[in-house]
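SAMPLE LOG
Freezer: B-3
Tube label: C17
Construct: single chain, 177 aa
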Amino acid sequence: MQIFHIATVSDWEAAQRSGGYTTSTRGRTLAEEGFLHAARREQVQGVFGRYYADAAEPLVLLTVDTDRLDDLGVRWQEDPVGDDTYPHVYGALPPAAVVAVRPMTRAGAATSFTTLFLREALLRAGWLVAAMMLAALGVVVGRSVGGEWSPFLGGLAGLALGLGIAVLVSRAVARRR
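STRUCTURE (predicted):
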């Protein structure tokens, strides 16, 4: 069976170095809680919304193979929490029990590193094309004004305008993620 745990990238990297993951949930340790909080697939989005939606640091979704936990001597079980049950891991999570690590978007969706990279690359390429189009428009406007330097200055103004708009929109999008 597979269970899931949301982790900060820094906590997960530290666990790989030390050989055991010990963050129970955001801001709480295994020593403080007595277990690591986990979730079934359908519970991940709710856990994200309650505890991680305002997280400023990058998050990953760890997929844990419970058979590997059993093989490594780490106990886990489903425990009642309110009207539902949630899986809990009683002990440090060995990195060998984690079968997948996927980055999470600011909206809480788990995705692949490739998808994040391509989305970011295409977004930046799109903004550069838009900036170049505004620069070209600036050249056309500059030519209509007349003067030796007008096309150059118009292109420069258009490029500056395009890059400025791209930066402002990118910042606004980043705040929403």
